[in-house]
Amino acid sequence: MDGIDDSIISLIDSGTINYSTIAKKLGMPLSTVHFRVRKLEKEKIIEGYKGEVNWKNAGMSVLAFIFVNVDVDLLKKLHKTQQQLLNELTGISYVKEGYIVTGEADIFLKVIAKDTEELGKVLLNSIDAKEGVVKTKTMVVL
């Protein structure tokens, strides 16, 4: 599996299952996309016709839930809403789901990574680096 397969998987996971659309988005021939998707299906990384991705088979074996605390005052100064910050966070390829929540945290994220080292890099370089994020609390699924 390489970066192209990762991109194909991300597009399929987001609901893009039309090979032509995937080929256009990735700037590659339709035949190449078709071949790669078939290979991923054979390897059981993509299961079923819905394009359902088995992340463990794709080498992404760490599932984590991350609570994000937001500096609402800073967001206001930046003319940014929590929804806009959530959209930025869910734009990170490792973030599979995200929600604005009530309680101790402001945003709840579902993140999938290859290992804890990669999860740490995603946290430090992508999530914590977003303007408005002041604190995160991570729970790793065993």
From TrEMBL:
GO biological process: response to amino acid
One Pfam family matching this protein: AsnC_trans_reg
GO molecular function: sequence-specific DNA binding
Tree of life domain: Archaea
SUPFAM superfamilies registered for this protein in UniProt: Dimeric alpha+beta barrel (SSF54909), Winged helix' DNA-binding domain (SSF46785)
Keyword field: DNA-binding, Transcription, Transcription regulation
Annotated HTH asnC-type domain residues: 1-61
Name by which UniProt lists this protein: Lrp-AsnC family transcriptional regulator
Lineage of producing organism: Archaea, Candidatus Micrarchaeota, Candidatus Mancarchaeum
